[in-house]
Design a protein that fits this description.
about 350 residues; mainly alpha; about 0% strand; globular
Length: about 350
C-alpha cells in the first residue's frame, strides 16, 4: 500500500483522516441537496430554490438553523447516555471509509486483509447508538421506536452479510482493494441477485424509504430521537445521510468496480464518485417510488423473502466457484436467468400481508 504523502505512516494517517472527514461532510451536504432537488421532479413539485441558485445553499441554511436551536434535555433522561448516543450513531459512518480505496491502493488502509469483515462489524455499531438514544431519553415511546429500529437493523443484517459472502467467494479476498482489482466484470453484472439483496438490505439497515419506519410519525411521533433537538438532532440527521453515503460507497466498491473505469490511472477518483452518486440516485428513486412498509410487512419481507433468496444466491455462487474456479463471462446470462426465476417463483409463495390491520381490545 503506498504511503502518501512523504512515505510516512503518521503523515499518511493524518492526511487521509482529514480527507475522509471533509469528504463525508461535503458529500452529506451534496446528498441532502441532491435528494431534495430530485424529489421535486419525482413528486411533481419544486425542490429547494430560494436560498441560492438551484437551492444549493439550502443545507447550509438548515445547518445554521439547527445550530441556533436550544438543546433541551428531558428531566427524566439519562444525561450521559442521551449526550453520547448521537456521537455513537455518527462515528461508524466515518470509520467505514477507513478501508474504502479512493484510487488504486490509495486510502487510509484500503488493503486491510479483513477489510470487508471490518465494514460489517463497524456498520453494526450504530445499533448501540440507537438503543442508547431510545433508552437515554427516558421516554417509553422513544424506547419503543428504538427497539423497533434495532429489530429492523438486526433482521436485515443477515441477508446483507450473506450477499457479501458471495463477493468474497468470487474475489478470493476480504481486502476491499483486492475485491476491486478482481472485478474485470463488475460483480453487479456477474451476481445480479446478490447486488439486489445487498441494496435492499442496506436500505433497510440505514432506515431509507420504503423501510424508513423511524419516520413513521403517525405511529411513533419521531422514533428514538423524539427527545432530541438542536445540534444533537443534527448529528442524527448527519448520521442518516452519512450511512447512506457509506453504503453507497460500499456498493459502488464491491459491485461496480470502485475506482476502475476507462482511464482509471488518472481519473479513478472521479469514477468512484460517479458510481457513489449513481447508487445514491437509486436510493432516492426507490424511496420516491414505493410506499412505506408496515412493521409486520418489513420483518416478514426480511425473514421470509430476502433471507431465503440470499441463501439460494450463496449456494449458486459457491457452486459456480467450485465448478469453474473463475466464473466465466457467459455465466452472466445464467445468473440473470436464475435471479429472475427465483424472484418470480419465491414471490408467488411469499404473502406480503396487505390490507388493513385492526386491533380489538
Amino acid at each position: 500500500m503506498p504511503l502518501w504523502p512523504f512515505d510516512n505512516y503518521w503523515a499518511h494517517f493524518a492526511v487521509f483522516s482529514i480527507i475522509i472527514i471533509i469528504f463525508v461532510l461535503l458529500m452529506v451536504m451534496v446528498f441532502i441537496w441532491f435528494e431534495r432537488r430530485a424529489f421535486g421532479p419525482f413528486q411533481m413539485r419544486w425542490g429547494p430554490n430560494r436560498s441560492s441558485p438551484w437551492g444549493a445553499l439550502q443545507p447550509v441554511a438548515d445547518a445554521v438553523k439547527v445550530l441556533l436551536k436550544e438543546d433541551i434535555i428531558p428531566a427524566a433522561a439519562d444525561k450521559w447516555v442521551h449526550f453520547l448516543a448521537p456521537i455513537v450513531v455518527f462515528i461508524p459512518a466515518l470509520l467505514i471509509f477507513a478501508v474504502i480505496p479512493f484510487h488504486n491502493g490509495y486510502g487510509l488502509i484500503p488493503d486491510l486483509n479483513i477489510g470487508l469483515l471490518y465494514i460489517v462489524a463497524i456498520s453494526a455499531l450504530s445499533v448501540i447508538g440507537v438503543f442508547m438514544a431510545g433508552w437515554g431519553s427516558g421516554n417509553k415511546f422513544s424506547l419503543i421506536g428504538g427497539m423497533r429500529v434495532i429489530a429492523q437493523m438486526v433482521s436485515y443484517e443477515v441477508p446483507l452479510v450473506l450477499s457479501l459472502i458471495g463477493v468474497v467467494l468470487v474475489a478470493g479476498s476480504l481486502s476491499i482493494n483486492e475485491i476491486v482489482v478482481a472485478q474485470d466484470i463488475p460483480f453487479f453484472v456477474l451476481m445480479p441477485l446478490g447486488f439486489l439483496i445487498f441494496l435492499i438490505a442496506a436500505m433497510a439497515e440505514i432506515n431509507r424509504g420504503p423501510f424508513d419506519l423511524l419516520e413513521a410519525d403517525s405511529e411513533l411521533v419521531a422514533g428514538f430521537h423524539t427527545e432530541y433537538s438542536g445540534m444533537k438532532f443534527a448529528m442524527f440527521y448527519l448520521a442518516e445521510y452519512g450511512h447512506a453515503l457509506a453504503m453507497s460507497a460500499v456498493a459502488a466498491t464491491l459491485f461496480f468496480g470502485g475506482w476502475r473505469g476507462p482511464g482509471d490511472e488518472f481519473i479513478g477518483v472521479l469514477w468512484f464518485l460517479l458510481k457513489v452518486m449513481f447508487i445514491f440516485f437509486l436510493l432516492i428513486w426507490m424511496r420516491t417510488t414505493f410506499p412505506r412498509l408496515r412493521v409486520d410487512q418489513l420483518t416478514g419481507f426480511g425473514w421470509k423473502f430476502l433471507f431465503p433468496l440470499s441463501l439460494m444466491n450463496l449456494f449458486i455462487v459457491a457452486g459456480e466457484v467450485i465448478l469453474w474456479g473463475e466464473i466465466p463471462w457467459w455465466a452472466i446470462f445464467i445468473n440473470f436467468g436464475a435471479a429472475v426465476t427465483l424472484i418470480y417463483l419465491w414471490s408467488r409463495l411469499f404473502k406480503f400481508g396487505g390490507g388493513r390491520v385492526e386491533v380489538h381490545a
